Amino acid sequence: MATMDMRTWRTGIAEVVSTDTEEEILVRGHKLSELTGSISFADMMYLMFAGTLPTKAQARVIDALLVASVEHGIAPPSMIARCYASYGTSIQSAVAGGVMAFGDRMGGLGEQLAKLMSERLTAISDDPQSIPEERLREVARDVVADAQTKGERVPGYGIPLHGMDPRAPKVMGIAKSEGTFGVFGRLGELIEEELADQRGGRRVAMNLDGVGAVVVLDLGLDWRTTRMFLITPRSVSMGAHFIEEQDQDTTWRHIPADWIDYPD
Amino acid sequence: MATMDMRTWRTGIAEVVSTDTEEEILVRGHKLSELTGSISFADMMYLMFAGTLPTKAQARVIDALLVASVEHGIAPPSMIARCYASYGTSIQSAVAGGVMAFGDRMGGLGEQLAKLMSERLTAISDDPQSIPEERLREVARDVVADAQTKGERVPGYGIPLHGMDPRAPKVMGIAKSEGTFGVFGRLGELIEEELADQRGGRRVAMNLDGVGAVVVLDLGLDWRTTRMFLITPRSVSMGAHFIEEQDQDTTWRHIPADWIDYPD
Amino acid sequence: MATMDMRTWRTGIAEVVSTDTEEEILVRGHKLSELTGSISFADMMYLMFAGTLPTKAQARVIDALLVASVEHGIAPPSMIARCYASYGTSIQSAVAGGVMAFGDRMGGLGEQLAKLMSERLTAISDDPQSIPEERLREVARDVVADAQTKGERVPGYGIPLHGMDPRAPKVMGIAKSEGTFGVFGRLGELIEEELADQRGGRRVAMNLDGVGAVVVLDLGLDWRTTRMFLITPRSVSMGAHFIEEQDQDTTWRHIPADWIDYPD
Amino acid sequence: MATMDMRTWRTGIAEVVSTDTEEEILVRGHKLSELTGSISFADMMYLMFAGTLPTKAQARVIDALLVASVEHGIAPPSMIARCYASYGTSIQSAVAGGVMAFGDRMGGLGEQLAKLMSERLTAISDDPQSIPEERLREVARDVVADAQTKGERVPGYGIPLHGMDPRAPKVMGIAKSEGTFGVFGRLGELIEEELADQRGGRRVAMNLDGVGAVVVLDLGLDWRTTRMFLITPRSVSMGAHFIEEQDQDTTWRHIPADWIDYPD
Asked: Would strands D30-31 and D23-27 be described as parallel, antiparallel, or unpaired?
């Protein structure tokens, strides 16, 4: 950890080529001019994070996760974007404001689950996918027990505003049918079982944040990319709601004084 | 334009359904649980902005534009995201910071061209796609002349750091081969011709911002969505560069004192 | 307007001195170690923007404007900051989110008035303070007439949520008693008179945004600094409301589904 | 921690009064119209966070801390704000971008020290100011030892770009001369002594982040306010540098391709 100036940079993500004979951008070694038109956005997103192109099955799972994550109605990030529209900000500020709103209690829980699972399983084996069922069950038990001890919830389970998350099982199902479902997905299910046992059978279903986390990890991606599979697709929602609010020509979205309690 | 409280909202984008019998999110009238796994992210993005699903050809053009816009090396937005990583911010703050960096001089030029073209052609006809070539040529002449009078450049043409933009012609070519190319694309070409005539034949090629603008307009989308076709894909780059910079464990990206000139 | 690298910088604001014999930061030529403890924050803010230290009277006016601008209850920027607290973001993200919310329709109107006044009066004279009353009255008439023609409101007048702005007349009164009141303040009053005449005598009082604009201009500051006299003090409110919301341990501030109208 | 709607709010910070007979904003029970013109910004900032007005001595210490924190040349936050200016963003976006840049490795270290000290001393006594010297020395020893065990640095000590921080000792001196210096300041000194002992006498001086932390805690403020004593004053710097960069009419601040290393 040394302080760095703005002159020294190293990247393996992309190289900008600009010579007398060639104008190109090499992304993970691939010519962007060749990728353009031949791969999908889902392929490209995977290439950026994994360094290699995904299989057709992996790409279908990514598309499913992205599509499921694009829109959730007037939820906090789109609410923020719409408020900004009513204040007269730019669309990029509104999207930035919505993205920033993904904190530790809203939008960030998938990352927390991914980090937790990643640390637990890589501690057991360099090849987490080889960890046997019974070992996963022990981990699930530990995860639930530790949360209980700390008086915390396991991140990625349960959902406000819905009886259950309608998107989560769908994405999980696609990961299974496409064959990308692995130990992380299985660990997610085992944690769900443990939570149900604790509650005398009452199920606390994995939500989309949780499913996104296990799907991303089973695709072999870094746990730190989890949040991007929410931020990138949901930015579309922030933009769409910003434009719709502009069309409604509202202004100054605010809390009326009589909604506020002033304790003495 | 009336001040609005936080209680009154209207949206045609999505409806959250949560009843005893159903948990669903209806996006532009489609069940999200059915869209998930059956359409691509490009389809979904078009659905969000256009209100209807795109044709296969339209979806291919959107994918091409998105893929071409994902990465541009250590360019301003990824530079900002990497600096933030070195300062120890969250990934969502880094992406927000990169998104906010898309101002009027960097990243916003496509929107300016889209707005300008949209206003000029809708003023001529409610069905811009029906405007004849000769009329478009007059508009191109006016656009270039007006810019010259104001001493401004026409937004969306020319590019720093490259002799020419390697991505722009590729995307434009796909719009043509897929058949989505229309009057806006043609107007873009005519403006390019006008600019070349002015410069005694020296070409100032349309850049990716410009091509993105005309492609989006020819897809029938609102000019205000233009910026989203940069913000959403480029967010992936911001996230990838943030993670790479974290892995390099840099800290405190800064300008050394001896790079700064203090005029007396 | 040339593209710039990150190596070439010029500033007259501050110089960082770090030698074997001296460690100092020179702000506008003054030693920060000597300013610290000898001047107030209001003095420092003026020094940063004006390049010189203010008179006692000017400092008192700045303090009055800053104090009046710190807090406005649970208004949009503090509402945003509190929402962020409920989402589990950092305090700096919450303040950034509140600052970004100051758009063209909320928080930005003072800047618009300052720009408009500055452009009109500098077009008349290099020394605006020398412009005579009758000329100012003509300008006021033009400003109101132009707004009417465009079907717009003159920015900085009228206020939502209050019958009138309780802070504006107080700050204006202090500018007068301290003797910093000048042509910009007078122009503000004349515009108010014009607006009243138009409305058959019904007064549309200058609000704090408007008063802040004229006070800042009469202090000899650049119109672009206007927004800072709102952003900087109000950031305190964003931080205070963020902390209070954290203490209330709320989560996921959102719009309940039944507050949303879904048009068919 | 219950999900909250946008209708239910409680605040003790400020109450907006708007009746037929009165227009007022009550801040911590004080009429804003009376505070305006009678107190300084430093008084107001303390009132917002502490709930009561400061003594003259406390206000002088706050002014000293604020003044010392306003400007640090073209440092990361002002560098970011200047880049944004070159990209053509708004001044509020530039300030927001600079504020967000205060992460865990840059700008956030004072908060970390304040949290750490606050937790350690409140664990010992409900009245930390009553904790005797020898007990503080034990805490200092523990803090340094724990950091060593974790292979971390104690936050708030040492500084990049300077041999020592020229601002820190000045602010600490003022806290002593004004009599607000207390156990937190003393603990800061004892930690500095411990660090020096470890390094065979080589001093690692407390920096401004560290001094800000102890000064704020000795003023009786919540550790979470620490960051605000950097964010609020430094926002002035971000605004000033944004305007100066605009005047220089730069565009597209970027990293030239030949500064980037592409590992094979």
From this structure: antiparallel
pLDDT of residue B71: 97
% of chain C at pLDDT higher than 70: 98
Looking at the complex, does the CB of residue C108 fall below 8 Å from at least one CB of chain A?
Answer: yes
Least confident residue range of D133-142, D156-165, D255-264 = D156-165
Within 13 Å of residue A80, how many CA atoms lie on the same side as its CB? 33
pLDDT for res C264: 72
Is B164 in contact with B46 (CB distance < 8 Å)?
A: no
Q: Are strands D14-18 and D23-27 parallel, antiparallel or unpaired?
A: antiparallel
Q: How confident is residue A208, by pLDDT bands cut at 50, 70 and 90?
A: very high
Minimum distance, in Å, between the CA of residue D134 and any CA atom of chain A: 33
Cross-chain residue pair C170–D93, CB shorter than 8 Å:
no
Rounded to the nearest integer, the mean pLDDT of chain D is 95
Q: Which helix (H) or strand (E) holds C49?
A: helix C41-50
Query: Which are the contacts of C264, defined by CB distance < 8 A and separation ≥ 6?
Result: none
- Report the DSSP pairing between strands D3-5 and C251-254: parallel
D107 touches chain B (CB under 8 A): yes
Query: Does residue A225 surpass a pLDDT of 70?
Result: yes
Confidence of residue B19 (pLDDT cuts 50, 70, 90): confident
Average pLDDT for chain C: 95
Whether residue B238 contacts residue B75, with contact meaning beta carbons closer than 8 Å, is answered with no
* Nearest one of D216, D220, D10 to C247, comparing CA atoms: D10
Radius of gyration of chain D (CA): 21
Please state the rounded mean pLDDT for residues A43-63.
98
Residues with Cβ within 8 Å of C242's Cβ and at least 6 positions away in sequence, in order, are C81, C82, C84, C85, C91, C94, C95
Q: Which of A3, A87, A234 to mutate to test binding with chain C, by most C CBs within 10 Å of its CB?
A: A87
Q: Which residue of D has its CA nearest to A4?
A: D160
DSSP state at residue A55: P
Q: If you compute the radius of gyration of chain A from its CA atoms, what whole number of angstroms results?
A: 21
pLDDT bin (cut points 50, 70, 90) of residue C160 is low
Smallest Cα–Cα separation from A114: which of A79, A156, A63?
Answer: A156
* Confidence category of residue B141, pLDDT binned at 50, 70, 90: very high
Alpha helices in chain B (DSSP H): 32-35, 41-50, 56-69, 76-87, 91-100, 109-124, 133-150, 168-178, 183-198, 208-218, 228-247
The pLDDT, as a whole number, for residue A20 is: 84
Burial class (CB within 10 angstroms; exposed 0-12, middle 13-18, buried 19+) of C132: exposed
Is the Cβ pair A16, D257 closer than 8 Å? yes
Task: Say how far apart CA B2 and CA C37 lie, in whole Å.
Answer: 47
**Do B164 and B217 form a contact (C-beta atoms < 8 A)?**
no
DSSP, collapsed to helix, strand or coil, labels residue C252 as strand
Question: Using one digit for the tens of pLDDT, what is the confidence trace for A123-143?
Answer: 999 999 999 999 999 999 999
Mapping DSSP onto H, E and C, the string for A85-97 reads HHHCCCHHHHHHH
Asked whether residue A30 carries a pLDDT value surpassing 60, the answer given is yes
Sorting pLDDT into bands at 50, 70 and 90, what band is C19?
A: confident
| Interatomic CA distance for residues B181 and B57, integer angstroms | 11
| Inter-residue contact D103 to B87 (CB < 8 Å) | yes
CB contact under 8 Å between B261 and C93, yes or no, is no
Partner C contacted by B149 (CB < 8 A): no
Of the partner residues D7, D76, D102, the one whose CB lies closest to the CB of residue B7: D7
**What Rg do the C-alpha atoms of chain B give, in angstroms?**
21
